[in-house]
Amino acid sequence: DVKVTQSSRYLVKRTGEKVFLECVQDMDHENMFWYRQDPGLGLRLIYFSYDVKMKEKGDIPEGYSVSREKKERFSLILESASTNQTSMYLCASTGTNSGNTIYFGEGSWLTVV
Amino acid sequence: SQKIEQNSEALNIQEGKTATLTCNYTNYSPAYLQWYRQDPGRGPVFLLLIRENEKEKRKERLKVTFDTTLKQSLFHITASQPADSATYLCAPPGGNTPLVFGKGTRLSVIA
Number of CB pairs < 8 Å for A and B? Predict the structure, then answer.
């Protein structure tokens, strides 16, 4: 069964802290994505990566960075967390072996206080 | 700019009826559209993909249509059940970016 695993389901962090959200997929997918989802705003793309060590900005990259050192792992980094980054974060992946279907992780609920 | 609109934020229907959800897109011509289901607090799950040369696609009680003239996709759930209650997302591919998701329609099937 295909799997996208997000390391933390629930996190509470303080303003100004550095936050790492980790995502691992076991499907040998080339493409990985980070979205955030807020009520009334839907899914918004933060960053994505089409290959190891490559990254592209999505619609809302400000305040975030990413790292893709290995094909299966895509990390989202909040350099200095702020309260407006309180949200649910979803990691996803897709690849040539899965057609155009995107597979999502279960989500990470981040609260910044 | 490319835009995806799902016409209703919420839809309530009676159990056993057919639910119809609408997805409209503007300013581009996607080669395909995907539909996802999202339960509260969970990630979206893929349901169906329909290509631009396919008028209709079915999977069990689900049916999707794709009208490139109207720039619209309709998603139908026949004989709806309370277990079908969820948010349904429409997602065509973007231009330089990956899938662009609509905001979703929250479906509630009332017993």
Answer: 52
* Local structure of residue A59 (DSSP, 8 states): S
CB-CB neighbors (< 8 A) of B42 in chain A: 106-107
Q: Are residues B99 and A59, on separate chains, in Cβ contact within 8 Å? A: no
d(CA B97, CA A74): 17
Are the beta carbons of B105 and B5 closer than 8 angstroms? no
Query: With left for phi above 0 and alpha for psi between -120 and 50, is residue A35 left, alpha or beta?
Result: beta
Within A4-78, strands assigned E span: 4-6, 10-13, 19-25, 31-38, 42-49, 56-57, 65-70, 73-78
pLDDT per residue over B42-61, tens digit each?
999 999 999 989 989 999 99
Q: What is the mean pLDDT of residues A10-33?
A: 96
How far does the CA of residue A103 sit from the closest CA of chain B (Å)? 7
Q: Residue A82 pLDDT > 80, yes or no? A: yes
Q: What would the pLDDT profile of B60-96 be if each residue is shown by its tens digit?
A: 999 999 998 999 999 999 999 999 999 999 987 754 5
CA distance A96 to A58: 21
B29 burial level (CB within 10 Å; 0-12, 13-18, 19+): exposed
Å between A105 CA and nearest CA of chain B: 6
Per the CB < 8 Å rule, is A99 touching B34?
A: no
Neighbours of B62 (CB within 10 A): 17
